[in-house]
Design goal:
The complex is a heterodimer of chains A (293) and B (228).
Chain A (H helix, E strand, L loop, with lengths): L4 H15 L1 H37 L2 E5 L6 H12 L4 E7 L1 H11 L4 H4 L10 E6 L5 H10 L7 E2 L1 H43 L2 H9 L4 H40 L11 H25 L5
Antiparallel strand pairs in A: 1-3, 1-4, 2-3
Chain B lengths: L1 E9 L5 E10 L4 E5 L6 H8 L7 E6 L2 E2 L8 H6 L1 E5 L10 H10 L5 H14 L15 H13 L5 E5 L7 H16 L3 E6 L2 H7 L2 E6 L2 E6 L9
Helix pairs in contact in B: 3-4, 3-5, 4-5, 5-6
Classes of the chains: A alpha+beta (293), B alpha/beta (228).
The structure holds adenosine-5'-diphosphate and magnesium ion (MG).
């Protein structure tokens, strides 16, 4: 293929895109929707994994004292807990301090801030561990001190709950992603095939005047590439925007969602690459069927 | 230039289109291929283009046995053949000039060559005012001129035309035949399939007659019908 053909191919591709605007819009929209769904699936699983990671790194265990605990019991427990080798730091939070914290947390939402009195929030002890992996062992010791499972709050608890949930979730997402990928390849190549089918007579004429398969195919493949690129870029922008909106929203409600769970730039590139690949492959295989003249 | 040796063509549905055809056309000849509709004229044209393969026998064009040409070299073979069809087969989204240019672009010719050659050839077929008209804006005769310009722009040694005047009125047809005649005069081998009786009778060229897939007559300076 001579290099001076590329200008010709590009002009052909752009002209065809304009002439077959409706078909192009269909193919672009299909690509965009499919890539968006793929992007959403990737986002959800990345965030779930991010949450598990964050929780796993949490080195805090909180043990809440029962309401009727006497000051004596509390003091006994405190001194014995301070002797745990896994604990680097322990803080006692009295009922009054708990209330102050509550009010501070919701200082911009006065309704919530004033909704509780000092008798509702229990006193607690907060333990900082040296290593988050010790949380299970420390929780076990606290239980032997007389704390009930329900009075403890430690990462392994959350992780167990999350793992149960995310185990299913991640599998469901994987299956859904694969199904959607297959569906989108079918949809997109169908959209492209329709647009090429409408031009099969032209392909026949091109071949009769001596055009090689590559010569006929290249503008179509470029067209698919441009369609895939436009559709996937639109989708990628929407997905990345939706992600940052979600992270902001989640953080304002104190969920442990981190913007670091996702490399926005990498995600964008991945989605665009998938769209371009589908566009190119779709048109390559669709034209092939009509080249046998 | 074009040789058919014992060529038989049976289509998939068992329709026998050509039966044991032998024919030789030498360089520089002008040959009419005549016969009623369904006698096998288009089948011969499509065999020459290697759009179809013969069921038996062999064909050679330009000294090359078509059966020996691999699929990827078929485009190269077709670039040695200008072809003109009854339905013009122009690309609807391209102007007259772009249609002609396309036939040069498929051979990878330089843009500059394309830009000078295309207007020249369209001028030659009498369309210098219609360079930028789309096929839909041209009359049948004008579209056929564009298609002849496209067939001839790379100056192929052979030009084949399948009923080039089939959709045109008699006066327009004369113009088209004159064009083909001129192309033959500068040395191109021309094969024209037609059932235009008057035209064939007037031009007194070699006439090969087909009947139900068989060559029934081959006469130099002949007429359309059997003459005594
Ligand atoms: N693609 C095809 N499939 C099956 N039969 C065909 C096909 N094309 C032509 N034929 C048959 O072959 C015969 C010759 O057709 P054709 O070469 O088109 O004749 P002509 O061009 O002289 O009218 C006819 O009987 C026609 O019905
Ligand atoms: Mg015919």
């Amino acid at each position: 293929m001579r290099s001076n053909n590329w200008g010709f191919f590009l002009r052909e591709a752009v002209k065809n895109l304009r002439l077959n605007l409706l078909m192009s819009v269909t193919a672009i929209t299909t690509t965009a929707v499919c890539v968006m769904i793929l992007g959403a699936a990737l986002l959800v699983s990345a965030h779930l994994q991010g949450i598990i990671r964050n929780v796993g790194q949490d080195v805090t265990i909180t043990a809440f004292f029962p309401e009727n605990a006497s000051q004596e019991t509390i003091d006994d427990t405190l001194s014995s807990v301070q002797g745990y080798p896994e604990v680097s730091e322990s803080t006692y939070v009295s009922r009054e301090e708990a209330l102050d914290r509550w009010k501070e947390t919701f200082s911009d939402q006065p309704d919530i801030a004033s909704s509780v009195g000092s008798d509702v929030l229990p006193a607690s002890i907060e333990l900082q561990l040296n290593d988050p992996r010790d949380s299970g062992a420390v929780a076990e010791k606290l239980r032997s001190e007389g704390f009930e499972e329900g009075d403890l709050n430690y990462p392994q608890q959350t992780i167990d709950n999350l793992n149960w949930f995310t185990g299913y979730m991640v599998w469901a997402l994987r299956v859904a992603t694969i199904l959607f990928l297959i569906a989108s390849i079918l949809l997109i190549s169908n959209a492209i095939r329709l647009s090429i089918f409408a031009r099969r007579k032209e392909i026949e004429v091109m071949k009769l005047v001596g055009a090689s398969d590559t010569f006929v195919r290249t503008p179509f493949v470029l067209e698919g590439l441009v369609q895939g690129l436009i559709g996937a870029t639109l989708a990628a922008v929407v997905v990345v925007w939706a992600n940052s909106a979600f992270v902001n929203w989640a953080q304002s409600y104190l969920f442990s969602v981190s913007s670091e769970s996702i490399n926005a730039f990498g995600l964008m590139l991945t989605l665009i690459a998938v769209g371009v690949l589908i566009g190119v492959a779709g048109s390559y295989f669709s034209v092939r069927r009509f080249l046998k003249v | 230039m074009i040789y058919f040796n014992n060529v038989t063509k049976v289509y998939d549905n068992d329709a026998v289109a050509l039966e044991d055809v032998n024919l030789g056309i030498e360089a520089g000849e002008f040959v009419f291929l005549v016969g009623a509709s369904g006698s096998g004229k288009s089948t011969m044209m499509r065999l020459i283009l290697k759009e179809l393969e013969p069921s038996r026998g062999n064909i050679s064009v330009n000294g090359v046995k078509l059966g020996a040409i691999p699929r990827r070299y078929v485009p190269k073979h077709r670039r040695n053949l200008g072809c003109v069809f009854q339905d013009y087969k122009l690309l609807p989204n391209k102007t007259a000039a772009e249609n002609v240019a396309y036939a040069m672009e498929v051979t990878g010719q330089k843009r500059r060559a394309v830009r000078t050659k295309v207007p020249q050839i369209l001028d030659l077929v009498g369309l210098k005012d219609k360079l930028n008209a789309f096929p839909g804006q041209l009359s049948g005769g004008e579209q056929q001129r564009v298609s002849i310009a496209r067939a001839f722009v790379s100056q192929p040694p052979i030009l084949i035309a399948d009923e080039p005047t089939g959709n045109l009125d008699p006066e327009t047809s004369v113009g088209i035949m004159q064009l083909l005649h001129r192309i033959n005069h500068i040395g191109t081998t021309v094969l024209v399939a037609t059932h235009d009786r008057e035209m064939v009778d007037v031009m007194r060229k070699r006439v090969v007659a087909l009947e139900a897939g068989r060559v029934v007559r081959d006469k130099v300076r002949g007429g359309y019908a059997n003459e005594v």
